[in-house]
């Protein structure tokens, strides 16, 4: 059975960097959902969202800098996406209406999902297309691009299969797009992506620590794409104990960040030189290595002895004087019933109120 889930590709392989790239169109149409777009579409390249469209705005929004550059160079590319999204919106709505009637469903909430696109291996040159639908959270129908026939995993989709199998022109058009057009586009996207990567350069790697006894965090930020790895080594061997690895997270500018913590509680001072943090990225030959060095660690922690005694005493004395002044003023106002400045001010405020 074909499971209708977004394919999670391997992000990183230590032995050999992956060379597969992916272009995915994720489309969702819904009915009966208030205050929610009836249609939404996203384009993803190597699992990164690069474009978005919904039925409320009816415009395609680029999400990363390199796709903005591509659209600037080729405005018709954006127009094609907008027209396709609008076309799919009408098709999806008609499909939901048809399924609701044919399956004798109520007029409640119904969702039709569509995921399609291609994968391309830039080493072997091989490409593979995929095209499938889900309905109300379940697998519904998928296209076998080799046999040019629709596969219905459930009886409810059999009538749809027969109808779509009979549309030979659509079948051949789909095969042409998913086996030829989209791989060409994906190669073009990868070229722009790589140029962006070259402009971005290597990430910034820092060693961070909260206190002298806490773990040391190796933090890398500003890399693209997200097929990268970050790990601690000792004597050239990767550590799997006393380390805590975080997930790869997105930055606001479309690049990524990640971190890995090292527990230093059992590391002797003379052994620090044996440790280093290694950043590796797909497509980049050389590793970025950062030695575990106290002088390189960034922290905002200041020991108590680091505060000037005079400044501390001055602050304490100042606070005491302020408390004495406030206490004295409070006692004075309690004893003095006719504190005219306060009464006059209150009265003036009341009289000046235009209401």
TrEMBL record:
<keyword id="KW-0812">Transmembrane</keyword>
<dbReference type="InterPro" id="IPR001039">
    <property type="entry name" value="MHC_I_a_a1/a2"/>
</dbReference>
<feature type="domain" description="Ig-like">
    <location>
        <begin position="203"/>
        <end position="290"/>
    </location>
</feature>
<keyword id="KW-0325">Glycoprotein</keyword>
<keyword id="KW-0732">Signal</keyword>
<protein>
    <recommendedName>
        <fullName>Ig-like domain-containing protein</fullName>
    </recommendedName>
</protein>
<feature type="transmembrane region" description="Helical">
    <location>
        <begin position="307"/>
        <end position="332"/>
    </location>
</feature>
<dbReference type="InterPro" id="IPR050208">
    <property type="entry name" value="MHC_class-I_related"/>
</dbReference>
<dbReference type="Pfam" id="PF00129">
    <property type="entry name" value="MHC_I"/>
</dbReference>
<feature type="signal peptide">
    <location>
        <begin position="1"/>
        <end position="18"/>
    </location>
</feature>
<dbReference type="GO" id="GO:0006955">
    <property type="term" value="P:immune response"/>
</dbReference>
<dbReference type="InterPro" id="IPR036179">
    <property type="entry name" value="Ig-like_dom_sf"/>
</dbReference>
<keyword id="KW-1133">Transmembrane helix</keyword>
<dbReference type="InterPro" id="IPR011161">
    <property type="entry name" value="MHC_I-like_Ag-recog"/>
</dbReference>
<dbReference type="InterPro" id="IPR007110">
    <property type="entry name" value="Ig-like_dom"/>
</dbReference>
<comment type="similarity">
    <text>Belongs to the MHC class I family.</text>
</comment>
<dbReference type="GO" id="GO:0005615">
    <property type="term" value="C:extracellular space"/>
</dbReference>
<dbReference type="InterPro" id="IPR011162">
    <property type="entry name" value="MHC_I/II-like_Ag-recog"/>
</dbReference>
<keyword id="KW-0472">Membrane</keyword>
<dbReference type="Pfam" id="PF07654">
    <property type="entry name" value="C1-set"/>
</dbReference>
<dbReference type="InterPro" id="IPR003597">
    <property type="entry name" value="Ig_C1-set"/>
</dbReference>
<dbReference type="InterPro" id="IPR013783">
    <property type="entry name" value="Ig-like_fold"/>
</dbReference>
<dbReference type="GO" id="GO:0009897">
    <property type="term" value="C:external side of plasma membrane"/>
</dbReference>
<dbReference type="InterPro" id="IPR037055">
    <property type="entry name" value="MHC_I-like_Ag-recog_sf"/>
</dbReference>
């Amino acid at each position: 059975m074909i499971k209708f889930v977004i394919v999670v590709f391997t992000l990183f392989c230590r032995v050999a960097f992956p060379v597969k790239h992916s272009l995915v169109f994720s489309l969702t149409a819904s009915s009966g959902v208030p205050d929610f777009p009836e249609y939404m579409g996203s384009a993803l390249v190597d699992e990164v969202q690069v474009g978005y469209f919904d039925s409320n705005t009816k415009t395609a929004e680029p999400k990363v800098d390199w796709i903005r550059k591509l659209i600037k160079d080729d405005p018709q590319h954006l127009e094609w996406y907008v027209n396709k999204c609008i076309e799919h919106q009408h098709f999806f709505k008609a499909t939901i209406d048809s399924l609701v009637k044919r399956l004798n469903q109520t007029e409640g909430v119904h969702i039709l999902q569509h995921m399609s696109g291609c994968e391309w291996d830039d080493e072997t040159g091989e490409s593979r297309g995929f095209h499938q639908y889900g309905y109300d959270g379940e697998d519904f129908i998928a296209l076998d691009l080799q046999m040019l026939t629709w596969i219905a995993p459930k009886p409810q989709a059999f009538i749809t299969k027969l109808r779509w199998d009979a549309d030979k022109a659509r079948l051949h058009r789909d095969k042409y797009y998913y086996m030829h057009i989209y791989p060409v586009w994906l190669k073009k996207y990868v070229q722009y992506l790589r140029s962006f990567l070259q402009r971005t350069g290597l990430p910034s790697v820092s060693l961070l620590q909260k206190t002298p006894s806490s773990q040391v965090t190796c933090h890398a930020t500003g890399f693209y794409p997200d097929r990268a790895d970050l790990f601690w080594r000792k004597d050239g061997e990767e550590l799997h104990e006393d380390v805590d690895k975080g997930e790869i997270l997105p930055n606001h500018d479309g690049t990524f960040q990640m971190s890995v913590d090292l527990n230093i509680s059992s590391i002797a001072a003379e052994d620090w030189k044996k440790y280093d943090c290694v950043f590796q990225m797909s497509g980049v030959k050389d590793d970025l290595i950062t030695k575990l060095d106290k002088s390189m660690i960034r922290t905002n922690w200041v020991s108590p002895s680091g505060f000037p005694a005079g400044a501390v005493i001055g602050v304490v004395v100042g606070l005491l004087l302020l408390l004495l002044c406030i206490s004295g003023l409070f006692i004075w106002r309690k004893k003095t019933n006719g504190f005219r400045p306060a009464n006059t001010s209150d009265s003036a405020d009341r009289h000046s109120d235009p209401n």
